[in-house]
Amino acid sequence: MIHVSIDERVCKGCGLCVRACPKNVLALSKTKLNAKGYHPAEVAVPEACIGCASCARTCPDVAIGIVKE
What is the pLDDT of residue 69? Predict the structure, then answer.
């Protein structure tokens, strides 16, 4: 099992992680806003994650963590 966590407090909604994911696991939220006023990334399709960590490596704010259980 692979768990993707996103720290919404520091995510600035740049979308780099969304573009980096080869399985389209992530998306920018259309309904949430963080305290900074950005639409943070969210895990849209968790079961599709292959644990490649492309999203975490791409994130300039180090807001994404990957845990393989």
Answer: 84
Instruction: Give the whole-angstrom CA distance, residue 5 versus residue 30.
Output: 18
Which of the four pLDDT bands, split at 50, 70 and 90, describes residue 19?
Answer: very high
Identify each DSSP E strand in the chain by its residue range: 2-6, 26-28, 41-43, 64-68
Tell me if 65 sits within 8 A of 5, measured CB to CB.
Answer: yes
What confidence category does residue 61 fall into, taking pLDDT thresholds of 50, 70 and 90?
very high
Nearest to 6 by CA among 68, 55, 50, 45: 55
User: What are the structural domains, with CATH classification, of the chain?
Assistant: 2-68 (3.30.70.20)
Which structure tokens are listed for 53?
């960590």
The model's pTM is 0.91
